[in-house]
Amino acid sequence: MEAPDTEIRISCICPDPATHPDGDVVRLQWPLPFPTMALLNKTIRWEKSTREGGLPMPAALALLTELYLRHTLASWTLVEDGAPIALNEANVERYLMTVPTAAFEVADRADDLYSEIVLGPLIQRASPSSPGGPTERSTSPTKVNGAASKTSRQSSRSSSSNTETTGIVGTA
């Protein structure tokens, strides 16, 4: 599989905008390291679980946008007084997040690259139904002498109690 384009050219956001007349270049990480994927995924899950009524989809997407900017950049071309500006959360907040057009360009590209691998597990966990398709044996209780057998009732009870219905968006 060919690596996707991870380079985004944005208007120059250096302290002196004349530094890069053709704009700055921001590169995103690829592949996204598992610890970063886990951080993004678990942060969304935690936010959802701590908010009464869940986490509305716009809030989840806004949080994900911020997380992309803070945690998925690999490099950038920002300089001040001829020296490279360190790529860290404080500088991302100071330089990139204060220029909404540039921040959205980078975050939108990050979303294109990462949304499936970050949101996929969240969506899967939110699905209240089991995967479709035939089962090996009947899932209906079988009757033994006019009553449902103990084994069938236990299977039925345990499978329904193990269904997890956590997701991004609350139901309230």
Description:
- It is a single chain.
- The protein has helices at residues 34-50, 57-71, 89-96, 100-126, 150-161, and strands spanning 7-10, 24-28, 73-76, 79-80, 83-84, 143-144, 147-148.
- It has 172 residues and is α+β, with helices and mostly antiparallel strands.
- Helix 1 (34-50) packs antiparallel against helix 2 (57-71), helix 1 packs across helix 4 and helix 2 crosses helix 4 (100-126).
- The protein has a three-stranded antiparallel sheet. The chain has a two-stranded antiparallel ribbon with strand order 4-5. A two-stranded antiparallel sheet has the order 6-7.
- The chain starts with 6 loop residues before the first strand and ends in an 11-residue tail after the last helix.
- Strand 6 and strand 7 (147-148) form a beta hairpin.
- The protein has one domain.
- The SS-based structural class is alpha+beta
- Uncertain runs are 148-172
Q: Could you say which overall geometry the principal axes of the C-alpha atoms support? A: elongated
Query: How many strands appear in the DSSP assignment?
Result: 7
SSE pattern, N- to C-terminal: EEHHEEEHHEEH
Helix content: 40-55%
Kindly report how far apart the N and C termini lie.
42 Å
DSSP helix count? 5
Average pLDDT for all residues: 80
Report strand order across the widest sheet.
Answer: 1-2-3
Short overview:
The chain is about 45% helix and about 10% strand. The chain has about 170 residues and is α+β, with helices and mostly antiparallel strands. The protein has one domain (about 5-130).
